[in-house]
Amino acid sequence: MSDQQNDLQLIRKCKRGHEPSFEKLLGRYRTPVYGLCYRMTRSAEDARDLAQEVFIKVFSLLDRYDESYAFSSWLFKIATNHCIDHLRRNRLRFLPLEQQIGSTGEEVELPLPDGGPQPDRVLERKEAMERLEEVIVSLPPHYRIITLLRHDQQLSYEEIATILDLPLGTVKARIHRARNLILQALHDRKYDI
Q1: How far apart are CA 152 and CA 146, in angstroms?
Q2: How far apart are CA 25 and CA 6, in angstroms?
Q3: Whether residue 40 has pLDDT greater than 70
Q4: What is the pTM of this model?
Q5: Strand, coil or helix: 107
Q6: What is the pLDDT of residue 4?
Q7: What is the spatial distance between Cα 12 and Cα 30, in angstroms, rounded to a whole number?
Q8: Comparing C-alpha atoms, which of 84, 28, 18, 83 is closest to residue 51?
Q9: Are 182 and 174 in contact (CB under 8 A)?
Q10: Fewer beta carbons below 10 Å: N end or C end of the chain?
Q11: Mean pLDDT confidence for 25-44
Q12: Could you tell me which of 26, 87, 81, 79 has the C-alpha nearest to residue 51?
């Protein structure tokens, strides 16, 4: 059974008040929604609050869900809009890039696997990723969200178009423009990636 079919079964049970189905949907999507919220806000506290608000909203609107679309697309559309609204209301607050935050908000250490790349290569890659994160965070929200949906959530152009309610051509153009903005920002900051 596909994820979409499984989601549909769970949603139908949720609509009838079946609490274990609600818990399964929440368990399946909690981490990706939190991840999206965190990448948009760069704040573990805000991401937890936003993710919780997204799920409250989703489950209160479940009767409006159109089963002809993937539940994940509908969910990410709500999460995306909620994050953008939050950013507009609160303007951006930045966290230091060197701070690594786990899914529960605590600081975590990144383990180095045995037999992996040498420590200097790991450090170079980590620094490159931090520079890239810094540039992505500096993008305007509509370019940041499209970049995160495409590269972090690995959604197709079509799924992004559905989530953001944009024409497919606009999605492709924004992704292309966001990549150019990222490359230009890296160049302007004299970063090598």
Answers
A1: 10
A2: 10
A3: yes
A4: 0.59
A5: strand
A6: 76
A7: 19
A8: 83
A9: no
A10: N
A11: 90
A12: 79
Q: Is 2 helix (H, G, I), strand (E, B) or coil?
A: coil
Task: Say if CB 58 and CB 50 are below 8 A apart.
Answer: no
Mean pLDDT over 157-169 rounds to 91
Per DSSP, the three-state class of 101 is strand
Residue 32, token pair as written in the block: 């990706």
Tokens of 96: 């230091």
- The torsion angles phi and psi of 107, rounded to 5 degrees, stand at -70, 140
Q: Which domains does the chain have, with CATH numbers?
A: 1-109 (1.10.1740.10), 112-193 (1.10.10.10)
Of the pLDDT bands very low, low, confident and very high (cuts 50, 70, 90), residue 113 is very low
**Structure tokens, 123:** 């450090």
Please provide the size of the chain in residues: 193
Q: Mean of the per-residue pLDDT values for the chain?
A: 82
pLDDT value, residue 53 = 93
